[in-house]
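2024-03-11 09:14:02 DEBUG pipeline.ingest accepted 1 chain
2024-03-11 09:14:02 DEBUG pipeline.ingest length=138
2024-03-11 09:14:03 DEBUG pipeline.predict start
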Amino acid sequence: MKRYAYYVIGLLILLGLGAYWYTNNQQEQAPRAMTVLEHVGDECELIAEKAAIALPEALPFQKLEKLARKSRVLQTCMNDRGYIENPAWVKYARPIAAKQAEAQHISMDEAYETLRRSQLKTFYAPANTPLYWIPAKP
């Protein structure tokens, strides 16, 4: 009877070790390849960061100036590399900006610009939303 118990315990230990090895040695999914848009966007984002790095941001208006510089440089860089603002994104964003403007008691232009600046740095396709950037010449 003891011998049988040792076999069962040994078998359970082997099964446990096998299960542990199997779960820890599963191959991870290969990272997806970056699209051309993501690659260009990363380059332009780095350029925009470098363009605004020396600007002070001690006062609130200086923070806004730094954010505006980053946005402008990013926009220019993307345009120079053949990407433009997606008209479908503009149609998608207008109603969202209108709701945000009403909820936050700000102007429609301010709400739209805030939304636009947040989407400037999106270089992958989120679910059910159009991309901000599209190639200028399809």
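2024-03-11 09:14:41 DEBUG pipeline.report The beta strands are 83-85, 133-135.
2024-03-11 09:14:41 DEBUG pipeline.predict end
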